Amino acid sequence: MSIQYFGLHSISGSLVVLDHVEGAHFDEMARIVLDDGTERTGRVAMLEGDKAILQVFEGTQGLSLTNTRTQFTGRPMELPLSDDLLGRVFTGAGRPADGLGDVVPEKFGDVNGQPLNPVSRQYPRNFIQTGISSIDCLMTLIRGQKLPIFSGTGLSHNKLAVQIVQQAQIAKDSGAEFAVVFAAMGIQNDVAEYFRRSFAESGVLQNVVMFLNLANDPIVERIITPRCALTAAEFLAYEKHKHILVVMTDMTAYAEALREFSSSKGEIPGRKGFPGYLYSDLASLYERAGIIEGIEGSVTQLPILTMPNDDITHPVPDLTGYITEGQIVLDRGLEQSGVYPPIAVLPSLSRLMKDGIGEGYTRADHAAVANQLFASYAQVQDARSLASVIGEEELADLDRKYLEFGSWFEKVFLSQGFDENRSIEQTLDLGWALLSLLPRQSLDRVDDQMLDAHYDPDAAQALKAKVRGRNG
Amino acid sequence: MMQTPVIYSVNGPVVKVRDTDVFSMSEMVYVGSKRLIGEVIGLTDLETTIQVYESTSGLQTGEPVTPTGAPMSVTLGPGILTNIFDGIERPLRALEQASGAFIGDGLDVPILDTEKEYDVEIKVRPGTVLQPGEAYAACQETSAILHLCLVPPTLSGTVVFAARNGMHRINDEIIRIQDSTGTEHSLTLCQKWPIRRARPAARRLPPSRPMITGQRVLDTLFPIARGGTAAIPGGFGTGKTMTQHQIAKWCDADIIVYIGCGERGNEMTQVLEEFTALKDPRTGKSLMERTVLIANTSNMPVAAREASIYTGITLAEYYRDMGYHIAIMADSTSRWAEALREISGRLEEMPAEEGYPAYLPSRLSEFYERTGAYETLSGREGSVTVIGAVSPQGSDFSEPVTQNTRRFVRCFWGLDKALAYARHYPAINWTSSYSEYMDDLAPYYRKKVNQKFVTYRNELSTILKEEQNLLDIVRLIGSDVLPEDQKLTMEIARIIRVGFLQQNAYHAEDTFVPLEKQFRMMKLILHVCHRAKKLLSDGVTLAEIRDSGVFELVIKVKYDIPNRQLERFNTLTQQIDATLDGLRARKKEVL
Questions:
Q1: Cα-based distances in Å from A130 to A229, A242, A372, B344, B398
Q2: In this predicted model, which residue has the larger pLDDT, A174 or B341?
Q3: What total number of domains does chain B contain?
Q4: Which of B28, B157, B173, B326 shows the greatest Cβ crowding within 10 Å of its Cβ?
Q5: Nearest to B8 among A49, A349, A390 (CB)
Q6: Closest chain B C-alpha to A318 CA, distance in angstroms
Q7: Whole-complex ipTM
Q8: Are residues B209 and B168 in the same domain?
Q9: Do the Cβ atoms of B297 and A115 come within 8 Å?
């Protein structure tokens, strides 16, 4: 295995071609040593006859056809794994970036992972309380779920992610430990620093593993970053039995790196220039969330992506939505009108919610109140678009009621402080109080029994009085 | 030239071999020393192209490629039902035992349980002459399904040996037959069939009977025939998977083949859990007893995803030949098309629209044409119905997969984002959806449900259509300016939408509704509509009718009257009539 290949056959973008190669494995790693002694890492991307095509993680700047010696390692890309990962900071390719030296590995894990057998999965059912009303009530996060935040540039997705991490009572009940794996892909230094500082302030830093590929780091490394993070997450979850929340940001930058790499390989592009396998590739990341039957520990994913031009039909949010189990969509209009968190309720969704709420999980009336809030808030949109045409005065009584409900809903239900942590009971009661602003017969998603128990116009008035009082 | 063929190049799931002529098209091969399963997809005098159904990580050039001499096939026999397979029919439970929770490479596991014994009844004796497709043995595969062992479609002859009735394993010799050339063939409980070739049948039958799903919007407005094809296109979050789950749970097919093609792992786990726990309303047994799952989730190898659709339909055809009615849920055909695109890209083929290969339409039509109601080779009647989910990119129905699918299916159940956002489920848009089977099925509805069924159904869709037109006006000037009778139309349309089209999958009574109740609900809505129209002409205002609470009663009928107590419709109608009569009487008094 110690054969060294001198020089290269050709270089193109981040790819290099070696010829007269014998016995190289598809997907294995290679070390490329330059004449000046520096070292780079490459991965076999294609084999053809005696040629091997390598992708070079650190980029090909400074490489020439003659100044390198290449040695194949015979192993796929692997990450050293141990308990000591916690509290550490790594580069996007999994090398220590905090000056604390190498991790003493308990074992090595192939960063590509392997598909989890569907029969070995346990269907996720346990509710994670994030303390954020709109999420807990309307798009409940479930342990083992992958629930992305669809955002836009300049929106408060980072703040929201931090709040979720701080408030998520992911392990309180089970006694198991909770940890965060943070993967940064192509984000600015400031943003990475914001996350680090927030984790430090909330005292969870020693339970965080960070993989940082910042905006100026090589794109080939960016493709490896989430894989390293998820390999660490799987190890900590399934072998160290912790509940892991993986925050990955920004998936759009990841997909763009993939596109750049694909085009440098000369592949046929699909929609908007992204490679045809973007779906499979994203799935190979997102599907690594889950719970294994009979094993304590879970991987929950909270990927963040920025929708280019706020367009939800762009390939990255679109394909993501097809793979993940729902989405939390942020809205620029809400953000501009001062609502935090600016969650657009109607396009947001949690697919696993239906089995993780109600009696025994949250509260028996949860599904009813969530359905009715969705339905009524959809009516608000209709009333608003009508009002913008014919004017508020011309509206029918019921439509005016919807307008009132809508503005209160955004003011007291959607909006909450960055450090305001609401319990699920508070959230649901708030939902009922708001629904009670509407006439009882317009609540057609809820049965009479439920209404008898919870419909209470006095509570609605009390809520209004309280908020007015608070605002002076 | 006679040396073992070896790998020349590796590019993702595509492997090439040079300078050999031992392979044939669609042949199954073992690739590399790990013996990964692959299929020959291209042959030239220079090189053979192979797609590999497992991860190619770690392959080297120069590793051997072993031909098997047989096309890519599935094993057919008892043990298929209740099982969960990957895209090339490897049982996932056996893979779990072999490699743990994560699926490893090059695992060699038996497709069907070879140790399990079935109580087999032999139906032939030495001397019996057997034609292709005739049953020679039967065994109870699950408590719900009797499995018939059929002579392969390519074989006929005289029985020279027959085993005794009793317990047999799937590889035991059951009979031996001698064909016309004098060659003897040994038949066991199982057989193989190439996945890309349709199993032959005697003749195709016209669609004449609906596949009843218990979902009102489907059965009443857009019905599908047994042996029909339907597409469910919809953006993410519109409820494709949910709709398919509902159909799989409640439709009146004998056997369900559920293909999770490039979809979420958790969803397959959910189907497995739910179907095992749920009771089949007709047999009282677990739904899994009549179900087979094919799970090639999005993170499993892409080539196997391409094969999973064919694996599924071949299994379905096998049970069809026994005289069963099979419903295939394919979720999602777009992922399958993307797998085609991905492999086509690796082969550097010339792309057509959006990078999809030019043969996308022909592959789609090949698949959908394998459905249908048939008279089998042995004269039984069976059918294969396909319901394919389509995941259009950006919810744009003009993209190639949706457009091409539309050409080959006769039912189109378009899901609508706006409806889903308003939590109107199932979010099937009643203006963009259609079913070409309505005319074929009208006689069945008239005869088996009610003479008036089709008339009522058409009235319902007329009201919905009128509402669409009125909405255009309302969006501009508000609903207050409409005359009373048009307001009534809007109100009735609301009742139809909320009380009839919306259906709650989580409500014990509402999750499945028999045709009879669907009819009674329609009848009640139209009855109230006609009565209300009369009242308006008598001078009663719409507000008065609304305040009487009659409309809310009609909307809540779906919850209030259980499926087994349809006679309560009569009392409810009387009660509503009395209320409305009261309104009229009061109006007369005032006048």
A1: 22, 18, 21, 44, 39
A2: B341
A3: 4
A4: B326
A5: A49
A6: 6
A7: 0.88
A8: no
A9: yes
